[in-house]
Amino acid sequence: MRLNEVGSQSQSSYLHWDELRFKPPPAGLSPQDWWLLLKLWRRSQAQVVPLRDVGGRSFGWVPWHKITEALHRIDVGLGGTMHTPEAVTHPETRDRYLIRSLSEEAITSSLLEGAVVTREVAKQLIRTRRPARDKSERMILNNYLTMRKIRDLQKEEITPARVLELHRMITDETLDDPKAAGRLRKEDERIRVMDEEGTVFHDPPPAGELKERMKMMCAFANGKTPDGFLHPALRAIILHFWLAYDHPFVDGNGRMARALFYWSMLRSGYWLCEFISISNVILKAPVQYYKAFLHAETDDNDVTYFIVHQLDVVLRATEDLHQYIKRQTQRMNALRSRLSGIDVLNHRQRALVEHALGHPDSEYTIDAHQASHDVVYQTARSDLLDLEKRGLLHKYKVGRVMHFRPAKDLDEKLAGDPGE
Question: Cβ distance 166 to 256 under 8 Å?
Fold first, then answer.
């Protein structure tokens, strides 16, 4: 059997030996023969990337046909304007969806790294910007602020100094050694990735190599290596893998790797990427995420496993965004029908009233309203005081801070004319 025939018969999935050995091989081949021929075919197609393992061997990837298909879908879905949800382009709703997506990524990325907090508490933390009460809350707040920072950096090149700055932001007040925030790990800080039973899955490069590796990673991230064209989404995914492989910090490597993925995607023009949460998808099946890293490292440095997994993650996250917007649109249409008399309210006030209808025990502050809609303090203050004046909110003070609760008879008031 020719190598191309083996390749064509292995098109449904990109399998590691751990999975392929349980599949029926092509006629006339044993599982071992099938694997050998498949490996030879993959090697004949492989393209090298600048990342090297601890032994100096290069990593590479195979331009498998499903990768090409997925990249096309990402180009259309995240970089273009066709089929773009109006909700994320309309100025009255765009910021609300952006805040929601940044919050979701901050929360789920932290949960992946061990944060212990309910989603409701996490969302309330971000919305109100109150001080974090423990390490888990601090992780979430740090992630959120870092994601916002990345949006501002998307037109800039990444440098080792910038990577350290982002790490300092993402790990502030969350490390056992506070001085480890914003610096590379040291020789005496031995880091290994292992399971609860002590089985080592990954032994990162020694600390003495990290400074040079960081320079090489940044050159790759900025498009200076390798020679020739590399699809931007592939570059972002390999960058994600690269930082996770080097594991340059004592903690926060996973969060940093995903943050750099977002930076790379935004810098390459995938503007809709800021509205999706890859960590939310990963959190639903974290074992597959870590297995993709493991398969890449245990099969001759073949990053294709991780690329295939992450392309699927991005596409699922994009679909999740579209489905969420569809549900919200349906909900908003029903709300508009119900709230036929609130045309006098602006879009921020309508959003707050919508939330209040579903959460009658919620409380609101000017700072939280300001953060939710990314407006100046005076605008947020005017919004809430106007709603209070119309009888839709009840105002009270906690110390010197004004708080607002939904009126007990909010439904009845909305059935009337809030302009009266």
Answer: yes
- H helix runs in 78-188, sequence order: 94-112, 119-128, 135-153, 160-171
**Does residue 339 have a pLDDT over 90?**
no
Q: What is the pTM of this model?
A: 0.83
CATH architecture of 65-74+93-317: Orthogonal Bundle (1.10)
Per-residue CA distances from 335 to 347, 358, 411 (Å): 13, 11, 12
CA distances to 235, 263, 413 from 388, rounded to whole Å, are 51, 41, 12
pLDDT in tens, 216-252: 999 999 999 999 999 999 999 999 999 999 999 999 9
Element (H, E) at 51: strand 47-52
**The amino acid at 107:** I
Domains 65-74+93-317 and 339-415 alike in fold:
no
Q: Report the run of H or E that residue 402 belongs to, with start and end.
A: strand 401-406
Which residues are registered as beta bridge partners of 402?
A: 397
- Is the pLDDT at 90 greater than 70? The verdict is no
Task: Give the Cα separation of 290 and 275 in Å (integer).
Answer: 24
- Fold that domain 339-415 belongs to in CATH: Arc Repressor Mutant, subunit A (1.10.10)
First to last CA, the chain: 82
CA separation for the pair 254, 261 (Å, rounded): 11
In this prediction, residue 417 has a pLDDT band, given cuts at 50, 70 and 90, of low
CA nearest neighbour of 171 among 160, 187, 183, 189 = 183
Mean pLDDT of 277-284: 95
Contact 243, 202 (CB under 8 A): no
Per-residue pLDDT at 8: 55
Question: Domain extents for the chain?
Answer: 3-45, 65-74+93-317, 339-415
What is d(CA 302, CA 416) in angstroms, rounded to the nearest whole number? 65
